[in-house]
Amino acid sequence: MKHYVIVGGSKGIGKATAELLAAEGHSVTIFSRTPYEGPAHTIEWEEFDVLTDSWEDRMPERIDGLMYSVGTINLKPFKGLKPETFEEDFQIHVMGAVKALQAAAANFNPDCIPSCLLFSTVAVQRGMPFHATVSASKGAIEGLVRAISSEWAPKARINAIAPSLTDTPLAGRLLSTPEKKEAIGANNPMKRVGEVEDIAEMAAFLLSDKSSWITGQILHVDGGQSTI
Ligand SMILES: NC(=O)c1ccc[n+]([C@@H]2O[C@H](COP(=O)([O-])OP(=O)(O)OC[C@H]3O[C@@H](n4cnc5c(N)ncnc54)[C@H](OP(=O)(O)O)[C@@H]3O)[C@@H](O)[C@H]2O)c1
Fold it and tell me: Number of structural domains, the chain?
């Protein structure tokens, strides 16, 4: 049994991944602003805001893996975007991940090869209008993953998943009606938007020892949208 940390595990992809890991017999500590609400007994919740709280003495003592699943989606034309919005997005996507990774790495289980997971977006691989802030931050995540993977190998691993639009609370405004969901799904090569399980299955695999020869990679779980 492994012990995983999921920062941003109360909702969306983080919650689905925590529940998959719990179903496989692992324990999970979730950090988020609002509580985890669900059936799994091996999931514990800690209140934490990545923008204001410190990691000092907050990480579990022995960590086999960490997933940072916090994000925002500010879709606006570049012309009207304030520099502050870029800075705020960088704080939540990149600095939040950097601080969590540094705190977790200090408590990595020395008896295993821990695995960490961050999130990018399809909009880094493919230029998409109105994605300037999220693409700038997630592009930094992709560079960070490659850099850290080279420092950590062979003692620890780190990868990222770059999803296309997936039905979570984050995407709630874009997918608020069945008609919107169908219309956006029609633009995807697989003719649907992502569901949390599509991403969580890959996340649980990347956190597990089953993916022990995969590090420094950006996995495009996106219905083919990044390449087709
Ligand atoms: N969904 C998509 O279409 C999509 C597409 C591409 C990339 N992604 C990326 O995939 C990752 C997961 O996205 P998701 O759709 O699952 O997001 P989500 O549904 O919004 O869930 C985000 C999680 O982060 C937590 N969180 C938000 N702000 C926080 C803060 N300041 N401090 C601590 N926790 C915070 C939320 O919990 P609380 O509110 O309780 O704090 C929640 O548990 C993100 O990095 C996102 O950018 C998502």
Answer: 1
Q: Are strands 27-32 and 43-47 parallel, antiparallel or unpaired?
A: parallel
How far is ligand 1, taken at its centre, from the CA of residue 171, in Å?
9
Among 138, 137, 145, residue whose Cα is nearest residue 122: 138
* pLDDT one-digit tens code per residue, 1-38: 999 999 999 999 999 999 999 999 999 999 999 999 99
Question: What gap in Å lies between CA 45 and CA 54, rounded to an integer?
Answer: 16
Q: Is residue 84 part of a domain?
A: yes
> Would you say 107 and 66 are in contact if contact means Cβ atoms under 8 Å apart?
no
The answer to whether residue 121 sits within a structural domain is yes
CATH number at residue 196: 3.40.50.720
Query: Is 224 within the bounds of a domain?
Result: no
Q: How much is the pLDDT for 69?
A: 98
In testing the pocket of ligand 1, which one of 7, 37, 51, 69 has its CB within 8 Å of the most ligand atoms?
A: 69
- The parent domain of residue 151 ranges over 3-219
Low-confidence ranges of the chain (pLDDT < 70): none
- From residue 185, how far is each of 62, 159, 194 by CA, in Å? 41, 26, 8
Q: Which residues contact 24 (CB under 8 A, 6 or more apart)?
A: 204, 208
Residue 227 domain-assigned?
Answer: no
